[in-house]
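Histidinol-phosphatase
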Amino acid sequence: MAFTMHSHSGQFCPGHAKDDLETIIQHAISIGYKTMGLTEHMPRTSIDDLYPEELLPTPQETLNSLSPRHTSFLSHAAHLQSKCSSQIHILIGFESEWLRPAEYTPLIHSLTSDPRVDYFIGSLHHVSSIPIDYDKAMYASAITACGETERGLWSRYYDEQFEMVKALQPKIVGHFDLIRLMSENPGRDVKREWPEVWEKMVRNLMEVRRYGGWLECNTSALRKGLEEPYPGRGVAKEWVGMGGRFTFSDDSHGVAQVATCYARGLEYLEGLGVSEVWTWERVGGGEGVKAELKEKGVGIGEFRGSLRLDGGHV
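Predicted structure tokens:
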């Protein structure tokens, strides 16, 4: 039973992703997905939070469009959830941001309260309000803002992530070690080189484990050129040792990225001794009433067996 818990569309993330949402869902069905989490980015609240491609036609116009677009996404997702129910189980969520905690915490709680929303992915894309996964120049700016050292940046990243998981307790923590992406040494042995940073990473894992959250094994790291998915092997082994659960995500941004690197991701988990990944089944719900989420383990063999790529199975 193949699935993803993290996906985006060009329809609701224009400039950031490609293709309309229904086209992406239909492609996912065609390659064997049985569950799909729709998790467009949440609205942001300041012009300073916009990415370069969002500054046209004007920053204010873009900012003004974000909340109405989110409302439109939820309506359209609920329509597709019903329309495609005989072919695929659709979960509706969003991916959160963590820029100004005093402002974003109540906003995220408000967005989550919508009865159509099943879950959200707790992600961190900024450190000191500077994007750390956009390009090398912004990554360098974030280093400068954190005391001129990459070590300081990684330390700040995991402190801000800890604030996020403590405040929000997301059911899924997105790309736990996204900070690796723009690093000149993404495969560094943090435990050996930066032991105080490793202690913060373990602290964060323990907090997620404490409240029962999941980490996603996110294969977008592989399609972006990293050797291992998010999280990397050191973190993943620590998480497995804690008895933590993984869900599985392609973090796709259009049809072309659906299930990208899934075979490698599944092999990676098997090499860690992981035998199943986790998703949810919606139970009940309806007009103005939230569905309950029933946890569902999927064996990796079953997952692989249902996924059809290039005319065959993975």
